[in-house]
Structure formats: structure tokens, C-alpha cells
Amino acid sequence: MGLKAYMNDIVEAVVTTAKGMRITARYGVDPREEVTLQYPEERWEIPEGYRGFLHNDIKTCTACTMCVKTCPVDCISLESVRGADKRMVLASYDINIGRCMYCGLCVEVCPPKSLKHTSGYEMASVTRGELILHFIAEDAAEIKARVARQVAEAAAKAEAQAAAKAAEVPSSGTAEVAKAAEAAKAGAQAGPKAAEVPPSGTAEAAGAQASAKTAEVPLSGTKAPDVSSESAKAPVVEPKAAKEGENKE
Amino acid sequence: MTTRTDALPTQEMTINMGPQHPSTHGVLRVILTTDGEVVTRAVPDVGYLHRGLEKIGERVTYAQYMPFTDRLDYLAAMNCNCAWAWAVEKLAKIEVPERAEYLRVIVCELNRISSHLIAFGSYTADMGAFTPFLYGIREREHVNDLFEMICGNRLTYNYARVGGVSGDAPPGFLEKTKEFLDYFEPKIDEYNNLISYNKIFVHRLANVAVIPAEEAVAYGLTGPNLRGSGVPFDLRKDEPYSVYPKFDFKVCVGTGERGTLGDCFDRYMVRINEMRESIKIVRQAVAQIPDGPVLAKVPRLFKPPVGEVYFRSECPRGETGIYLISDGSVNPFRLKIRTGSFVAMNIFEKVTKGLMIADIVAVIGSFDIILPEIDR
Amino acid sequence: MEALAISLVNAVPLLAGVPLWAVTLLLMVVVAAVILVFALTFEGVGSLVLRKVAGDIQARIGPNRVGPNGMLQFLADGVKLVLKEDLIPANADRLLFKLAPYFAFVGSFAAFVVVPFGVGLIAADLNIGIYYVMAVTSLVVIGVLLAGWSSNNKWALLGGMRAAAQIVSYEIPVGMALIPAVLIAGSLSLQDIVRSQSGLLGIFGWNLFHNPFTFFSFFLYFTAAQAETNQTPFDLPEAESELVSGYNVEYSGIRFGLFFLSEFGDMFIVATLSTACFLGGWNVPFFNAGTLPWIWGNLFSLGVFLAKAFTMVLIMMWVRWTLPRLRVDQLMRMAWKYLVPLTFVNLLGVSLWLLVFKGKGIPAMIASLFG
Ligand code: SF4
Ligand code: SF4
User: Fold this and answer.
1) What are the residues whose beta carbons fall under 8 Å from the beta carbon of A37, sequence distance 6 or more?
2) Bridge partners, residue B337, by sequence
3) Which of B300, B301, B335 should be substituted to probe chain A, the one whose Cβ sees the most A Cβ atoms within 10 Å?
4) Contact B193 A72 (CB under 8 A)
5) Atom 6 (ligand 2): residue with closest C-alpha?
6) CB contact under 8 A, C324 and B358
7) Average pLDDT in the C268-287 region?
8) How many contacts (CB atoms, under 8 Å) link B and C?
9) What residue in C sits closest to B21 (Cα-Cα)?
């Protein structure tokens, strides 16, 4: 190594170091260069379409199970029963937010657009079970029992109607039908409305009217978690049931 | 006369570097055999992050696999998303709207910038200068903001769809992109002044782990690792896909400016220069983007014809090749993914022979490996 | 110290009956305690400032949660370190493992004794001051080496070996770079060196501007000393990105804290030495603090000295957050191929200068031109 190269080395080392130090000094003294966001106090603006926690508006959800089928990691689970009107009634709708990867595929496929991303992104829990969001607060078994009751009622109503019709038309009157009709009348207290049903009415038509009332029952009793609010820490959960579910996992 | 080593026998030492080590970029484990500080053998031991991504691919539908590609290379999820979409489209022969292709190119190149920023930053941090790392992270946040705007997430984007992209660019996105490019372009010079040409930094990288061009090709290196050896191979140019042929950019190759062609410094410099090229591409794409739909009509549970396809695209860490066999059902029959980082591990043992422990860190950083890509 | 004890006994009649050695001993303990408190405070505040400077340079804020503007962060850190479990690895050499941090800490702390804080503020104005500092700070390497060896961890061992090689190499340029100041003052005592830079020349009385060679000496010393005390970019013994954390990788709790403190102590010693030897110590331009009443003179000079020393510390932090780290062979090359020859040439230059110009510096010669 010649003397020139030797000196060059030294000069280069000094010059490049000085260059670098000039840049760091500029950042060091310029307070405008601080880019830190003081997180809990300051927050960044969440853009539209942010993929945060999921929220299902179960009033519009049709229990079509598209979301369940689409989710690549199976974190949505729903139970539904066929209501008196032959439409599906949600008995439970849970999203395991701890397993969800916020990919948004479920949101994209939801036909009535009831499943949506909120802008919620912060949540802490002590147990994994708490991460399962229950969108229907009522117990699934209760809903099922109630829907089953309603279905039975509707069926009875329809039968009663059929029986009434049968009574009008003597040819079809058998002892059993009359008996059933009586029982149904007593049990279901089929009001004058039953008589209003047009003669062509099948069981479904009768049920359709009944469902107008009954279908709302489970909904009014629910409280879906409002994850979009600032205090996302306490979505409605049933820790006990959740924990059991988690343990089973 | 006995030499000193006869009198005092020395022994080689086996050191376990990783899987928890600050500079192995994740959970890479390198088994070092050293003679003092000099490494006589360094064997990479991969597999600590194996998640069976390829097997998962056989169990989910083509559309459902998209979020998993986010996890293939989490620093360049957009590129992986698009690679998957392109592969499936090639398999099923789906036409993609042009606007969607432009959006894909924009996000891919932005993601290339952000990925190279991390490569640059973590490399300097490996070399002991922590400050440039945070500068790199700072700039990357802007890219993340853009991505959050267009797809709603900051890391696992899941933006591409088979047949297009999940959503059109929201109003203001293209302007914001331009703003970012204007802000970012001068920063590259700042990085160069701050660290790239710093004497110590150059000395740490120059002439370390030289990979000659033939060897790089023989070992199947791709991406910046191959170009660092002076081979101008870039899939965007050599096997053009999407709308890349419409853009004017140059392929950055190593020049051996500070040492030997194909050393760590060249690989590093290729990445720095590629950021400029990506800026160029994004500028052109933003200027030329046509209007129109962004998603072709693809049935949700579509069944591609029986057949197989291999599609490769240029990801920040080299060629990401997707090999798909379809048996005509809704799930792929077999999926194999070829990644740049994994291939780079092949040559690792060869180039690290005789280096020092600190150089091992330099080599790992210069390959810019990412563990989920290696283990999949 | 004994002289001080005598004067104390004379001044305070109450002490008349106490034997002189007891008074001296007591004084020593008091002075040591004062210095220890100062050292610990500096090291605590230093760590906070380091993080704040890092934050500023790295375009972020730095600690700001504990106390107003994060000022009490170092107390929180200290409490945390004290409360943490003191782990000793199963196969460690327990005795050496426990001892090592004390060597490191004592090495850096003992050097504070000869720091000329002010006109009369020096714990022990040893006539071999500089020599003492260099000797005692070398004790740190024993601690580091012991830590590396006793941890029974290969990373720690590598760190310890690196530290030993590094400190042994850099001792030479550090010494060579300091000798010009000694030559000019004609004394090894740090107080004498500082006094030799006073006078009416203002900042041109400082050794830094004495002649071109001393000017380079300062930078050579500063570079070599950073290496000797393992500061970035020469922090190879701990090199967190290579050796995980180097020699202290197995340490936790207060033992780790001692290593940490010794690092900041070393930083301060380098700053004080460069201040005392090249930047005029507690001298300010055109003003002689020695003429003030004892107490004010000392307070004033203390302030001046600390201001200069802290500026040097800030510069060290600035360097630290800018530069990458050298490789171990490059570090050795730098010592033996660059710093050692350069400091030798420099020393030769200074000696010749002093011989030719009879000890006068350039500023003094210019001043004499104007009468
Ligand atoms: S966002 Fe993705 S992972 Fe989460 S529930 Fe929907 S489909 Fe499943
Ligand atoms: S896809 Fe929508 S409507 Fe269907 S079950 Fe899911 S949330 Fe309900």
C-alpha cells in the first residue's frame, strides 16, 4: 500500500464520517423531524375500508353460512334453525377474533352485507376464550327451544286451520282431524286471525304471518358487541361459556 | 523447534448462532464451527418456521389461499398476493382488467420499495449502525399508510384477487402515492451519504462473500442476489408479465464499485438502486393508469381445467415461482412454491468459508433472507 | 489528602484529640462517597441523555413517560436493575462470575479520583495522574475478560477475548496521543496540565491550538480512546448484532448494571481526559478562576469543566448513533497500521516543535509578535 492510498484511506474515513454526522446532527437538532405518534393519546386517522374487528349486524344476517364456508381458518361458527316461516333463524353467531386474520374474505361474500369490518383494532383479554365474540347474547339452546315451540305452534295453527276447513268440508272430516283441530285450538288459542287465512293457505302461509312476530323475538333480546366504539375492551362476551368452548378446543 | 500450536493445542469451537439471534433475521439457525473468530464452516439449519403453507394450499380453494400468501413473505405481501393471482389466472386463463394490472404493478413496486427499505435498514443495524434502520422504518410507514388506504391493512394486505384486485384505489390514493415518491426520492441520496459510502460500512461489505456470476447462476440465485453478481436477469424484463413491458426501467446490477464484483456491497447497492427504479415504474404507472373495472367476473368456487402451471414473478427477494397442479376440483392438487431466500441458503455454506463471525452477519444480511420464505 | 486533613484539624478545634490518620481516613471515605455519588448520577443521567440523543437523531422522541419529559427514566431503570433476579448460569465459574463486574466498575470509578474538576477540586492530585488513569482503566479489561470467561458461554468468551485484544492494542495509541500534553506541561499531574493551558491567550492557550501536531493529537486520542473504552463504533466486545451482547450476555440484575455503569464511567473519563489535556480543562478565555474566592472559583471552574466534558460526551453519543461497527481484524488493522504510526509521528512532531521553538506554541508566538 502506497503512501497515497494510505492517506486517501484516512481522508476518506474522515470525510464520510463527517458527512454521516452532518445528517444525524440535522435530525438531532430539528424537532420537526420527530415522527413518533404518542399512541394512546394520539391516533392516526383510520382510512375508510380499514379491516378491523368484524361486526355482524345479525338483524340483516340471513344465516346463509357463506362467511363460514369462505373463511380459510374456520373462525366463524354459527348455529341456525329453520324458523316457523322456513327462513333460517340464527341461534348463535360467534367469531373467534383471536384466530381471525382480518383477510376480509368473509365480508366480501356476505350477500346482505351484514358482516362488516369495523375500525376497532385494540382489545386485550386475559384468556383466549374472551376473544370469541358472541353476537347473540341469548343462549343458543333457548333460542332453539323457542323457535321449535314457534314452529310447533305454527304447525298446530296450520293444522287447526286445516281442520277447520275439514270441518267445513264434511267429506274430509275424520275423527282424528277434528280431535287435532280441537286440541290445537285449545293450545294455540287460534284467534279470529286464523279464520282470516285465505282458503288456499298452506301451513307456510300461516307460518309467514306468525313469523312476522316471532322472528323478532330473538333479535330484540340480543346485544351485539359494539367493537367500533373507543372502548373496545369489553365486547359482550359470556366468559364462562366461552371458556368452556375454548377448553374443548 | 515446536511451534506454538504444538505446545498449546487449539481446538475448533462449535457455536450455535440462532434460532434466537438478533441478526439472523428471524429464526434461522446457523451452526458455526470456528477457529477463534474465523469461521471454518457455517451450516444453515432451516425449518424453525415451517407452517406447511404448501400443504395448506391443497386444502383450501384458490381464492381462500390468497391470505396465506401474505404470510409467505410478510415484508412483500403484495408481491406474493399478485404472484398467486397471476399463477391462478394463468392456470385458469382468466382475463384481468387492465386497471387491475396497473394497480397490481403500483402496489408491487411500492412493496418492493418498502421491502428494500427493511433490507437496507436491518442490514445497517446488523453492521452496528442503528440509526439508518429507523430512517428506513420511518419511510416504510408511509408505504404502509398507502396500503392501509387501498386495502385496509398494514402488513397482511390480501389485496389481489383471482381476476383482479379487491378494490379500486380510493380517491386520493394516486395523488398520495405521487407525494410519497417525491418525498422519498431524495431520501435515497441521504441514505447513501449517511451510510452506504461510509468508510467503515464499505470496508465491512466490500470483498466479503464474493459470488462470481457463473456460480450465482449455477446455484440458482435470483433477484438482487443474482444481479449483485452482475447478471442482468430480471423477470420483469426477461419474462415480462402483467403490464411491465409498458414501463421503462433499467435492471440494476452489481458493478463491483468498491470491491470485487458480486460481494456483499454489490448486493446491497443493487437494492438501493432498485428502489430508484421502482420509483420510476410507479411514476409511470400512476401517469398511465386507465379507467375501468378492477375485478373480472370469476365464479366464487371456480374450477380451473385439469393441468399444471408454473408462474414466476420478480419479488423483492428473488424469483417467487408458483407451481400448481389442478385436478379440476376447487382445490389445487399440488402446490409448490419456489422462493428466493430458500435458494440463497444453498450457497451460504460455500461463501462463508474462512470469513469471520461478523461477516456471517454481513452475508445473511446481504442475501436479505426472510424466514417465512425459507421455511414456508 | 493528609495536608487537607491537617488543615481540617487546625480549623476545627473539636478534632484536635482525634489521631491524624483517622481524620485522613474519614476524609477519604467522604471524598470517595462524593465521587461515587457523582459518578452514579452522571452514569444514570448519561444513560438517559444517551437515549434522548438517540431519539432525537433517529427522528423519534425517546423516553418520555417516567417523570416530567421522561427525566426520571434512569431512576426507573436503576430500580428495575436492582430488583431483577441475579442469575448465575449453572456451569459458570461462580466466584469469577460474581467478581467480574466489580473489576469493571472499580476500574472506571477509580479513575474519577484524579479528574481535575476545578481549581482545587481534585480528590487526589497524583503526580502521575495520567499514568494512573491509564493503568487503572485497564482494570476494566480484566473484568470484561473474567466475565467472558466465567459465563461459560461462547458468545461471552468471544466478547471477552475481543475486549482483551482491543484494549491491549489501543492502550498504545492512547498513551502516545496524550504524551504531547504531558510534554507541554512538563508534568504528569492532570492539574498541572490544566494549569499549563491557562493564561491570557484565551482558548488559544489550550493545547488543542498549541501547534498543528497537538491539534491532530486530540483527534487521535479521541478516536483511540473511544476504541479503548469500547464505545461504538468500536464496541466489538458487546456487538449486539454479532455476539448477541458479548461479554455481559449472561449477566442480569445489578451485576449487569455495574457493567453498564462502568461503560458510562469510561465514557466520562475519556471526555474528562480530552478536556483536561486538550481543551484547557476548567480554563475559560481571558479569565482566571483561581483569582476568585476559593468557593466561587471552584464552583465556577467546576461548571466550566463539566460543560466541556459533557459536550465531549454528547459528541461521543453523536458518533455512536452515526457509525457502523468495525470488524475485529479491521479494528486491529486500524490500531496497528493507522493509529500507532500516526501517534508516533505526531509525538515526534510535537517533540521537535517544542525543541525548536523552546516550548512556545503558535498562538504564543503570534502574541509575542504583537508584544
Ligand atoms: S376476516 Fe378472514 S379470517 Fe377473519 S373471519 Fe373473515 S374470512 Fe375468516
Ligand atoms: S355471509 Fe353474511 S348473511 Fe351469510 S351467514 Fe355470514 S354474515 Fe350472515
Assistant:
1) A43, A44
2) B322
3) B300
4) no
5) A67
6) no
7) 79
8) 79
9) C244
| Half-sphere exposure (Cβ direction) of B102: Cα atoms closer than 13 Å | 20
Q: Tell me the CA–centroid distance for residue A101 and ligand 1, in Å.
A: 6
Give me the DSSP letters along C307-334.
HHHHHHHHHHHHHHTT--PPPHHHHHHI
Query: Does the CB of A112 have a partner CB in chain C at under 8 Å?
Result: no
Q: Do residue C26 and residue C157 come from a single domain?
A: no
Furthest C-alpha separation in chain A: 126
Ligand 2 centroid from CA A107, angstroms: 8
ipTM confidence score: 0.80
Q: What is the pLDDT of residue A229?
A: 39
Gap between the Cα atoms of B177 and B285, Å rounded: 11
- Determine the straight-line distance between the first and last CA of chain C, rounded to whole angstroms: 42
**C positions 28-57 inside 8 Å of A (CB):** 53, 55-57
DSSP category for residue B211: -
Query: Contact A24/C53, CB-based, under 8 Å?
Result: no
Burial A19-46, CB ≥16 within 10 A → b, else e: bbbebbeebbeeeebebeeeeeeeeeee
Query: pLDDT tens-digit profile of A166-205?
Result: 777 655 445 555 455 455 554 444 444 444 444 444 444 4
The domain in which residue C219 lies consists of 84-369
Q: Whose CA is nearest to atom 2 of ligand 1?
A: A103
Nearest residue (CA) to ligand 2, atom 4: A64
Q: How confident is the model at residue C39 (pLDDT cuts 50, 70, 90)?
A: confident
Between chains, do A103 and B156 touch, taking CB under 8 Å as contact? Answer: yes
Domain match, C168 and C50 both:
no
The rounded Å distance from CA B332 to ligand 2 centre is 26
Q: What is the pLDDT of residues B211-266, one digit of tens each?
A: 888 888 888 888 888 888 888 888 888 888 888 888 888 888 888 788 788 888 88
- The alpha carbon of residue B93 and the mean position of all alpha carbons in its chain are separated, in whole angstroms, by 27
Helix (H, G, I), strand (E, B) or coil at C288: coil
- Structural domains of chain C, count: 2
B348's grid cell: 451460504
Give me the CATH topology for the region A54-145: Alpha-Beta Plaits (3.30.70)
